Amino acid sequence: MALGATVHNFDIDLADADRGVYESLALRVARHPSESDEYLVARVLAYCLEYGEGIAFSPGGLSDPDEPPVAIRDLTGALRTWIDIGTPEAARLHRAAKLAARVAVYVHKDPSQWLRSLAGARIHRAAEVELWAFDRSLIAALCARLERRTAFTLSVSDRELFVSLPDVTLSGVLTRLSIA
Asked: How far apart are the C-alpha atoms of 111 and 2, rounded to whole Å?
């Protein structure tokens, strides 16, 4: 028998001074059985950092490799922004850049080997693909506090993230990467 998804509830007060976005979010996030804590946390943070009208988690999650983990669609359902998590292969980025006007990738692992693998690869509009690396110590600290119901405040200023939990405030920088 296959394992089902686990639902995590996140109550997030978002204050993104970089984009002028201030919202209270109540997210119910289905976690695929093969999804790591790090991936889940990165997916939720990426959702917050890209939050806007039409944003949604992919309904298929990790089980649908042809869809982004997070997407922004217009009112007609057309894909505007493909938001990927982790270290997608060059072919996936190439396809994403052809399907969406904007592609953003949020990396929660060491990106050095992945960036080397992308260098020289055929990626449509490669210079326009936005690559961001989370501070790995921030991801690890959030994973250590991850529960089925988690509430925090996320403040963003100059691409520095401040996550305020009931007992501690964590911080980390979001670093812009580029395909060499």
From this structure: 32
Residues paired with 133 in a beta bridge: 107, 175
Q: Is 143 exposed, middle or buried (0-12, 13-18, 19+ CB in 10 A)?
A: middle
Q: Which residue from 90, 91, 87, 92 is spatially nearest to 38, judged by alpha carbons?
A: 87
Rg, C-alpha atoms of the chain: 16
Q: Is 141 left (phi over 0), alpha (psi -120 to 50) or beta?
A: alpha
Q: 6-177 belongs to which homologous superfamily?
A: Restriction endonuclease-like alpha-beta roll domain (3.10.640.10)
- Strand ranges (DSSP E) for the chain? 6-16, 21-31, 55-57, 70-73, 79-85, 102-107, 130-133, 149-157, 160-164, 169-173, 175-177
Distance of CA 32 to the CA centre of its chain: 15
Q: Is residue 120 very low, low, confident or very high in pLDDT (cuts 50, 70, 90)?
A: confident
Answer yes or no: are the C-beta atoms of 128 and 96 closer than 8 Å.
Answer: no
- Model pLDDT for residues 4-33, shown as the tens digit of each residue: 789 999 999 999 999 999 999 999 999 988
Show me where the domains of the chain are located: 6-177
This prediction has a pTM of: 0.95
